[in-house]
Amino acid sequence: MGWSLHYTINSFSSPLPWTTCNNPWNTENCYIKDKGTNRTLNSTSPASEYFRRSVLGIENHSMDNLGPVKLDLLGYVAIIYCLLYLIIFKGIRSTGKVVWVTATLPYLVMLVLLIRGLTLEGAGKGIYYYLYPNLTRLNDVQVWSDAAKQIFFSSGAGFGVHLTYASYNNYHNNCYRDCIITSFVNCFTSIFSGFVIFTFLGSMATKQNRSIEDVVTIGPGLVFEVYPEAIGSLPGAQFWSMLFFIMLIMLGIDSAMGGLECVITGISDEFKTWFRRKKHRKEWFKFAIVLSSFIVSIINITRGGMYTYTFLDSYAAGISLLLAVLFEVLAVSWVYGLDQLCKDADAMLGSPPGIFWRICWKFISPILIFSIILLDLSYPVPLKYDEYTYPNWAQIFGIIFTFIPITFVPILALIEYSQFPGPCKRKLAYSITPISEHDTIKNQGYVKRFSWRHWAYIR
Known about the structure:
With 459 residues, this protein is mainly α. The protein contains 20 helices and two strands.
């Protein structure tokens, strides 16, 4: 979001600073096709040089040498976090009102950009590339892993955001309907945004007389190098650029609000008695969470911050996210029990989930997630950013960093297990049984989760 705010402010410049090669940060390799200069193997676009040399200042830096903090980015990020605190200050009600803007405005902006993109020469070429499948890529394990991670990222599964917001709903709220709508909107958004992106990429490839493969990139490079270059070639480039980066800020704020509310609500619910003792204690707690998040983010706005950003993006929410979701689905469908889950759904919605959902929760989802995790671990890929390969110490630390969040699962399980009295079997019975059934164990000695029927239940 700090990068997006930087681009938004500089979108008021004429000409746009990432469309020319006569700036202090440009090198002799800067190349603009329309200017008639000769292109060499070392040529770089002005948008690429602007992002790397002006915005990031990444030259001559690495994971071993992150360099100083970029003060301009520090200011932009501070503005974003102040805005976030003001949004979440009054709780979920104020957040819900802001979401109406941050969640709907991007669709309007994307629609405007799509209409403009379809009028460009080469847009059809980009759409064809987007829709025509390359089936050979299905043999690549990384494609399946990236696809699974993308679904979790875009839908928010595994992050706890949906659970947080759902906890504020009425007991009889139709969560089944909400889940279907959320999944549909998530898929629609991904497909729709793909059309928006590839219309401009097709136009860019046509103008530069290059193939789509040579234009397409992944990660921040697509958003802050390729797309600004494509927009910069349009009439009224300042307006389209400002529109695009405001959209990115809205999307970022929307995601950040969910992440912060997830942490704040989880801790507040766990220590609700402590928060009720003094007035404004929760507001100060929110301030501390936002401030902590801001301090952690500073490492990503150093001159080598792109390397830490890529590191965290790869290791902080990759395999660890898939493992967290795997544990969740196993805990709910197997330990808590599919029969009890269906009873809860029936009490809330008036009807239990169908057989399709039961089979998915109990068998298909765990098997698919476990398979992707296994394949991902079996074919490790060295972490890179462009041509830079991360040092061995960073990759080893990344693997450790991946599994740190997962270690809390067995640790908390042992804490839960040890707090109950009695022999090991009794401790286990209490620890895997909901509190509402503890009296049954105490008075009758019956442990539902020790029966075969509990584990074999499907319908």
